[in-house]
UniProtKB/TrEMBL annotation:
This is Tyrosine-protein phosphatase non-receptor type 6. Residues 259-519 form the Tyrosine-protein phosphatase domain. Transmembrane segments: none annotated. Keywords: Receptor, SH2 domain. One of its GO terms (molecular function) is protein tyrosine phosphatase activity. Residues 137-227 form the SH2 domain. The lineage of its organism: Eukaryota, Metazoa, Cnidaria, Myxozoa, Myxosporea.
Length: 538
């Protein structure tokens, strides 16, 4: 395999006219390792001058365009520059682009001249469409760990499909005592299990044998019901959304979408933890909503006061070697404003995210607990809280707070990010402003990585849970790359063990998928980078 040298030349400027339909990342990006890409692209069935785009094994900001030339595999290195929102190709005179999509688009329309090592032209002419299935019966990943749940806990008379280390596919059929394995063969005619019946995709093969008997050595029946796997390659989220949007029959003759099945599974597996302290007679009046307690085992305990209770929980999520720490709480009531500030000072909080209006539909959802601009509030004759600046952009207010101890021994700064366009129990009209908020708060958290971020709406569960879910998955992509495997359902189930009822509605659950899809297209596809930033003036 050779690598294209740094000689890149733009042949002519983009023109209007017929454009290749490549706007969806899943059409041309394949979440495979470099070794598996080489095996796949070396097959005789892969057309000459076709290519795929994939992530480097060694750097999450390096992408590779692997192309099959007439004699060998050629590789074009593409570098992502997150700090300026650009991608570049060529290392002699790098050429900048706004997105991977723009690079692929220009290559397909022959608008770039790329030289390889012997000064010959690299002329990719078509992309190989991602062949990895997006259905819930497909188990993402090639190691045994991803398949262990199907082997250990899969229901009898179910099937699943996964990819082998050689780049092929296998069907596993769970019986009462074992898992029978059936190989799927690949040829120029497509995919087959008997070399008689051929199919263009693995999905077509599975659909066919869901109706007709298989002619396999270990299995001569139709496929049983599918195993449901909630994890998937995040680069394929658009296809996953299409799959989960389809209604399917369930027990009792009813039908529901895959989203409904997943959200119902979350509810069924969200065991209630104990919260006697939260509902005790002395603390009940501190709760904004009687049906939203704070679990005892993760609740924030206030120091140096008569009553240590506040409706707030510590919530943590591990992403690679990084731990994300949050405090999720209700919007303060008049009688809990001082508790809120005690918690902020105690935990040395630098970032607060508010996801509710103070009043919505004439109902008070959250008390305004910070002073007016350039005004101060004294607490316990010990601290002075001052609003020193208000700013922000459309839909997002940014309030800068100074916290000073009266004896001069303590000073801290806190920023409140107030998102104002999220309806209660609903979702924003589009995800872009919310994604901008997530990027802003992540930038600030990077400055204070050991300090928890406070997130609250009114009850501190619906909008709050949705925001934190998005933050966790976005950080997983940020630190593990766009080929990572994500599991939105299992992530939410884990979060619900730390605070009750996070993500309240099916609409909010569906919005998580839609927003991550938009974020991925921002990272890779046709969407442009969000360049607007709000800088800290502290």
């Amino acid at each position: 395999m050779s690598e294209a040298v740094g000689k890149i030349k733009r042949l002519f400027d983009p023109l209007s006219g017929d454009e290749p339909d490549i706007s969806e990342v899943s059409k041309w990006f394949i979440p495979m390792s470099e070794e598996m890409v080489a095996k796949f692209m070396s097959r005789t069935t892969v057309p000459t001058w076709s290519f795929i785009v994939h992530l480097s094994d060694y750097d999450i900001n390096t992408f590779l365009l692997t192309c099959k030339s007439e004699s060998q595999l050629e590789r074009l290195r593409i570098t992502c520059h997150p700090d300026m929102g650009k991608y570049s190709i060529g290392h002699i005179k790098p050429m900048l682009f706004n997105s991977l999509f723009e690079i692929v688009f220009n290559i397909l329309l022959s608008r770039l001249q790329i030289k390889i090592e012997d000064e010959a032209d690299l002329v990719p002419s078509m992309y190989n469409k991602c062949m990895i299935p997006s259905e819930t019966w497909f188990i993402a990943g090639i190691c045994k760990f991803q398949r262990s749940k199907f082997y250990r806990k899969g229901q009898p008379d179910t099937f699943a499909v996964w990819m082998s280390e050689e780049g092929g596919f296998k069907i596993g059929i769970r019986t009462e005592t074992a898992v029978d394995i059936i190989d799927i063969f690949t040829s120029g005619k497509g995919y087959s299990i008997d070399m008689k019946h051929h199919f263009r995709t693995v999905e077509e093969l599975v659909r066919y044998y869901g109706k007709y008997c298989m002619n396999a050595p270990k299995y001569d029946k139709i496929l049983p019901k599918p195993h449901v796997c909630s994890s998937f390659y995040v680069s394929m989220i658009s296809q996953r959304i299409d799959s989960l949007s389809v209604k399917r029959e369930v027990a009792g003759g009813k039908s529901c979408t895959g989203f409904e099945l997943e959200f119902n599974e979350v509810a069924a597996r969200s065991a209630e933890n104990k919260f006697p302290y939260s509902v005790s007679s002395k603390n009940r009046q501190k709760n904004r909503y009687g049906n939203v307690p704070a679990y005892d085992h993760t609740r924030v305990k206030l120091y140096d006061c008569d009553n240590d209770y506040i409706n707030a929980n510590y919530v943590k999520a591990d992403v690679k070697s990084k731990s994300l720490a949050y405090i999720l709480c209700q919007g303060p009531k008049p009688n809990t404003i001082e508790d809120m500030w005690r918690m902020i000072i105690q935990e040395n909080v630098k970032t607060i995210v508010i996801l509710t209006g103070l009043v919505e539909k004439s109902v008070v959802k959250c008390e305004k607990y910070w002073p007016e601009l350039e005004e101060s509030r004294n607490l316990w004759d010990e601290y002075k809280i001052t609003t020193v600046k208000e700013g922000g952009c459309e839909n997002i207010g940014v309030i800068t707070i100074s916290i000073d101890k009266n004896d001069g021994t303590f000073n801290s700064w806190c920023k409140i990010y107030h998102y104002k366009s999220w309806p209660d129990c609903g979702v924003p009209d589009d995800p872009w402003a919310l994604l901008k908020l997530l990027l802003m708060t992540n930038e600030r958290r990077d400055k204070y990585p050991l300090v928890p971020t406070i997130v609250h709406c009114s009850a501190g569960i619906g909008r709050t849970g949705t925001f934190v879910m998005l933050d966790i998955i976005m950080n997983q992509i940020k630190y593990q790359g766009v080929s990572t495997i994500v599991d939105i359902m299992e992530t939410l189930i884990k979060l619900r063990t730390q605070r009750t009822s996070l993500v309240q509605t099916l609409t909010q659950y569906e919005f998580i998928y839609a927003a991550i899809n938009a974020y991925l297209n921002w990272r890779l596809g046709k969407a442009k980078f969000i360049n607007e930033k709000i800088t800290d003036d502290e």
